[in-house]
Amino acid sequence: MGDRDRRPARAERAQPGAVLIHAGLRARVNLANGSTLAGLGVAALGGARVGRGPDRLFVGTGYRLPVPPAPAFCLGNVIITRLDGLTPELLRHEARHATQYACCGGVLMVPLYLMAAAASWLLTGDTGAKNVFERRAGLADGGYTDKPLRPFVPRVALRKPAPGRSVTESR
Ligand SMILES: [Zn+2]
């Protein structure tokens, strides 16, 4: 993938489950739903230097607040990082999150994301591995790895639907 493949439509097409949206439409929707303004506010609070990124995104570097703990995060059309810049992989991962904000009604995505992260943690011990937002943004691009379910998960699932005698009883 060269630099010319960094437009969101192409980058997002490369990720199964990612929603495709035109960069201009995404920018207008996230401006209207207030999430981009919230992102610019958080970037300012964290002391980030905000500049224009590709595809009508903003990139804020040098963020200094302790939360969230991730090296980079997205709020509306604003990608914020503690680093001095973003790799192409991290940029396209966060750009997919920007699209998710446009599809989830803006900052409403924050509680939805936190619930998905909690569910993922319960299932795997990792907030990203089974988090639908991270999976659709691309686990590898975001620096996540897929994780197996915790050992209790299959046992709980198997215990539920068997009040009677099991057909597969074996000794
Ligand atoms: Zn992510």
Describe how the helices and strands are arranged.
Layout lengths: L7 H6 L9 H10 L2 H11 L3 E4 L5 E4 L10 E4 L2 E4 L6 H16 L5 H16 L7 H6 L14 H8 L12
Parallel strand pairs: 2-4
Antiparallel strand pairs: 1-2, 3-4
Bound molecules: zinc ion (ZN).
Counting DSSP H or I runs of 4 or more residues, the number of helices is 7
Order of helices and strands: HHHEEEEHHHH
Rounded Rg: 19 Å
Report mean pLDDT, rounded to a whole number. Answer: 86
Largest sheet: 4 strands, mixed
C-alpha termini separation? 55 Å
Number of domains: 1
Bound molecules: zinc ion
Multimeric state = single chain
Q: What features would you highlight for this structure?
A:
alpha+beta, binds zinc ion, disordered N terminus
Commentary on this structure:
This protein is of the alpha+beta class. The protein has one domain. 43% of the residues lie in helices and 9% in strands. The protein has helices at 8-13, 23-32, 35-45, 88-103, 109-124, 132-137, 152-159; strands at residues 49-52, 58-61, 72-75, 78-81. Helix 2 (23-32) crosses helix 4. It is globular and about 45 Å long. Bound molecules: zinc ion. Zinc ion is lined by residues 93, 97, 134, 137, 142.
